[in-house]
Known about the structure:
Elements: H1 14-21, H2 35-56, E1 70-74, H3 82-87, E2 91-96, H4 99-112, E3 117-120, E4 131-137, H5 146-156, E5 157-168, H6 172-183, H7 201-210, E6 213-224, E7 228-232, E8 238-245
Parallel strand pairs: 1-2, 1-4, 2-3, 4-5
Antiparallel strand pairs: 5-8, 6-7, 6-8
Amino acid sequence: MASDEADSGGTIRADEAEHFGRLAADWWNPRGSSAMLHKLNPPRLRHVRARIDAHWGGDPRGFTPLSGKRVLDVGCGAGLLAEPLARLGARVTGIDAAPEVIAAARVHADAVGLAIDYRAGGIESVTGERFDLVVSLEVIEHVADPAGFVRGLAGALAEGGLLILSTPNRTPLSRLALITLAEGTGRIPRGTHDWERFLTPDQLTALLADAGLTVRDLTGLAFSPARGFELSGSTELDYFVTAVRG
Length: 246
């Protein structure tokens, strides 16, 4: 199983699925191996909500801006993003390559009374289905075929829908912060990232264009020792891309 090759010609890297599968039991522990994801979640939720409201003209004070909409969370992990999206009124489908993580997601959703359609698999597992909102945060750097992955995301997007991605930029800062420091000190499990697989904004924008999508927003994610992770005008560490069809 420990291979960089795609699973059955798809986008999944079996070694990545195994790596994240080993973290499943600890996923919802804010002080455990997924602590960094818990710290990332508040700013990324603020950004996703802002993009939702901007795209559909929603009231930022409303509680259920996704009411009546289908949402796909690709690389959902154990549900840190999928659950808040369900609370915003969406019918959420979450997919992840690691079956162990999907099992943890189902247990947690059941415990908090949320009905989320969790499935083990890659983007290929939703071929033929369409979603109003497709999100995939901190995932594309882990797939076997980024271009094929983006085409799959585009194929899952309904007409008039919205796609939101986030990923680390391939810069000296991201190598220092995410690998040398975060993995080197154990804040992120060793082996989580491969810096050579990080995509620059230009590279990701080109993949989106090739898939028939147009970028509407590019927002950075920075880290401040005093404030933690925060949205930023700088994309040097990490960034969000919002795209639409056409």
